[in-house]
Every structure is written in structure tokens, then in C-alpha cells.
Amino acid sequence: MILDNETEIILGEHEILVNISSISLNKSLCPYPDSLTPTDGLSVANWSGAGSAMIVYDDPESRMVYYGFSIDSITDGETMEKLVLNSVEWVLPMEGDVNGDGHVTIADSVLLQGYLSDPVAYPLNVSPLISANTYEIAPGPTTINIYDVMYIQKWLLDPSTPLWDEEHDQGVTVPPQS
Prior knowledge:
Blueprint: E1 9-11, E2 42-47, E3 52-58, E4 63-67, H1 77-91, H2 106-117, H3 126-132, E5 142-144, H4 146-157, E6 172-174
Antiparallel strand pairs: 1-2, 2-3, 3-4, 5-6
Helix pairs in contact: 2-4
């Protein structure tokens, strides 16, 4: 595919495209974009007449976004920044969302409490454990404990409450991701 003045990206509807009405590319920065073909993913934007321009994969273990063009070829700086931020927010686990349904509810608190009481009977993989830690989502050892359960419940009662408490962030160490 060769990018020309008539090639356009037709946007679909997806969280990574919120508040983005159009995407224009500088053809000198991306003269040969890729036309993507989703296998298990979802096409969220298409080239006019030539396959997918953006694909997302929403796997229970992880999320991925693929662009068929160079991100720095987007002509509008605000659009480029919004697409990157939307994509990062969609890919990263939501703090407190232990069951991965996209919402923080009492079910997340119950699931985490079960894991803390008996990790063999109520196992969680690494991604929910990272979401469960309502204090730090950062590289390195991550700990979860009953305070994370408490802060999820506290946040459900008052969403203005922060979902963390540095003083009490000590507990179960989450294994590193491989």
C-alpha cells in the first residue's frame, strides 16, 4: 500500500478512539503504511479500500494495540497525544479491577479477599494481582493485602477516596511477570 493524498483512515468505535474525530497522516513520514489483517483481534480503523489501519486484541491475560502506520506521522499533535493516551489507558490494568471486567465493584473486593484467605482455592493470575494492588502499579515487587480489599470497599462508598494507602502497603508479594 502506498499512502497518497486520497488515502484516509476510516475510524470505527472503540475506547482508544474516544474524542478523536479523524486521523490524518503526513505521507512523507509514513509513505508505506501496513494494511493489517486481524486474526483474533478487532479492527477499529480501516484504510479506505485496503484493510485495517488499527487492530486491538482484548485477551483475558493482556491487551494489545497495533497501528499500521508510524504514530509520529499523525499530522495533528493533539490527535496523536489523545490516541497514545487512550491506547495506554486501555492497555493498562485498571486499579482495583481484580476480575478484569472494566469496572471496580464489590465482586473485585470479594475475589481478592478469597485469594488472600486461600490462594490455592481462589487463584488469580498476575494481571488481576497487579490490578488488586491499589497502592502501586509499577515495576518491581508488588504487594497486596487486606488493606487493598478495604480500600476497594472504601472507594466504592466514596469514589473521591484514593485507592491506596502507602503506610499499609505490605503483604503478599506478587510474582514477577514472565
